[in-house]
Amino acid sequence: MKKRALISVSDKSGVIEFAKELKTLGYDIISTGGTKKLLLENDVDVMGVEEVTGFPEILEGRVKTLHPNIHGGLLAKRGEESHLKQMQEQGIEGIDLVCVNLYPFQQTIAKPNVGVEEAIENIDIGGPTMLRAAAKNHQYVTVVVDALDYDEVIAELKLHGEPSLERRRKLAAKVFRHTAAYDAFIAEYMTDISGEENPERFTRTYELKQTLRYGENPHQQASFYRAPLGSEFSVAMARQLHGKELSYNNINDANAALQIVKEFTEPAAVAVKHMNPCGVGVGQTIHEAFSKAYEADSTSIFGGIVALNRIVDEETAKQLHEIFLEIVIAPAFSDEAFEILSGKKNIRLLTVPFESTNKIEHKLTTVEGGLLVQADDTFTLDDADLRVVTKREPTEAEWDAMKLGWKVVKHVKSNAIVVTDAHMTVGVGAGQMNRVGAANIAIEQAGAKANGAAMASDAFFPMDDTVEAAAKAGITAIIQPGGSIRDEDSIKKADQYGITMVMTGIRHFKH
Question: CB neighbours of 66 closer than 8 A, spacing ≥ 6?
Fold first, then answer.
């Protein structure tokens, strides 16, 4: 019997050539709508679906392939006598190859200000149904959803008359991944527009961006996936201008650096090691900001990741060039800066659009057997009800230092303490089991620079020992959430030493 292929695609890349090859191999081609029109215009003889079904397209094309003459041809077991008998009785002919891709739902909802009606009209019904039917029956039917597979399918058809069962099974698996992702987009969109905050099922889909050399350690396999409609301001969407591929740890650290640097509107530079900031600086220029970030911890920055929120100029590039860095991320690099930095073989240079920092996403954390989902921590001091709880009001410089520290401590692993002046971090205490321990680390790192500096804490002081440690180091201003049953003890201790203390009413745990 002559073989038949059904072709109906929204993405028409390569489909003319694919159809012509199938015709050469003796296939009759069934097609619909725009695909049929395109193939006929390019001298590919096709029959319309209505010729197979004996029924016209109706309801603005919403119903055209949902018919036994199509799905019987897709789902029949060719090795089952009862199936063959029923096909013959009903006048159904088999369909041996299906080439379908779906209405562009993802592209539609990605458009700005897309209306609900337009989005819903781009939910494909017949396409997924044909794909799933053919994929289920892949023992007998070849199903192609990705134009990248056209050449391999044609090659196997020419060589063996049909793709191997192994190939058909892989193509079928790709179909089910494709339709699952398609449905995930629809589910997410419909959940959002219906206002459901805690759906009984949480569904997201991601696309493979990169197979990594290894994970956190060389014995761990790893891959990097990106959210198709995720934030443009991300490592996942970054443009790499120079250097070798990013590693698992590079990606994590670069993400941490971006999340910190986007807190700032003034020129700012952030250096990160092991997902914690080792130096953050601000200034009138990006060079001044980076100089401060480097000065903050000139030891830990070695082998680190640096994110800057202004174009990297020649002067800054020269200083960056003097240090061993894994990655530099910025909105752009001047020609002179790129020439200087690209002279280093191993440094990676990335750009991201800093104008796209406002997209709010969910934070997903895997645990054994489950997934934690929470909203991003987007709370800033603009949202806070700041209260000066001590007798002394902060000076302008102390306000600047506290605001800088609060922006940074939000991104330091808890328990977290950050010591800053008005222009840079001078001490970071991260990931400690008690707060005074984190304070002691930050104070020790700050050394003499703690004198006259400000301290920021990601959560309240359970007792006044942290204030005592700050006072002994010469710290003059503290910003913390408050909310402890012993807040009054800390306030009294601050007043005792003449420290000004501000409470924000909000904590920034980062576990």
Answer: 125, 126, 129
Q: What angle do CA 258, 263, 269 make, to 5 degrees?
A: 60
On the question of a cis peptide bond just before residue 415, with omega within 30 degrees of 0, the verdict is yes
* Marked catalytic residue, from 83, 242, 274, 344: 274
Of 64, 65, 24, nearest to 43 by C-alpha is 24
451-473 burial string, b = 16+ CB within 10 Å, else e? eebbbbbbbbbbebbbbbbbbeb
Per-residue pLDDT of the chain in tens (511 residues, 90 and over written 9): 689 999 999 899 999 999 999 999 999 999 988 899 999 999 999 998 888 877 877 787 777 778 888 888 898 888 888 888 888 888 888 899 999 998 888 888 888 888 988 888 888 888 899 999 999 999 999 999 999 999 999 999 999 988 999 999 999 999 999 999 999 999 998 998 888 888 998 888 999 999 999 999 999 999 999 998 888 899 999 999 999 999 999 999 999 999 999 999 999 999 999 999 999 999 999 999 999 999 999 999 999 999 999 999 999 999 999 999 999 999 999 999 999 999 999 999 999 998 877 777 788 999 999 999 998 888 888 888 899 999 999 999 999 999 999 999 999 999 999 999 999 999 999 999 999 999 999 999 999 999 999 999 999 999 999 999 999 999 999 999 999 999 999 999 999 999 999 999 999 999 8
Residue 136 a catalytic site member: yes
Between the alpha carbon of residue 23 and those of residues 42, 138, 158, the distances in Å are 13, 21, 12
Q: 367 - beta bridge partners?
A: 370
R_g over Cα of the chain: 30
Residue of 23, 83, 136, 318 marked active site: 136
| Pairing between β-strand 362-367 and β-strand 325-330 as defined by DSSP bridges | unpaired
Known catalytic membership, residue 2: no
* DSSP code string of 27-54: -EEEE-HHHHHHHHHTT---EEHHHHHS
Look-up of token digits 């929470």: 374
Question: How far apart (Å, rounded) are the C-alpha atoms in residues 154 and 172?
Answer: 16
pTM: 0.86
CA nearest 268: which of 254, 285, 251? 285
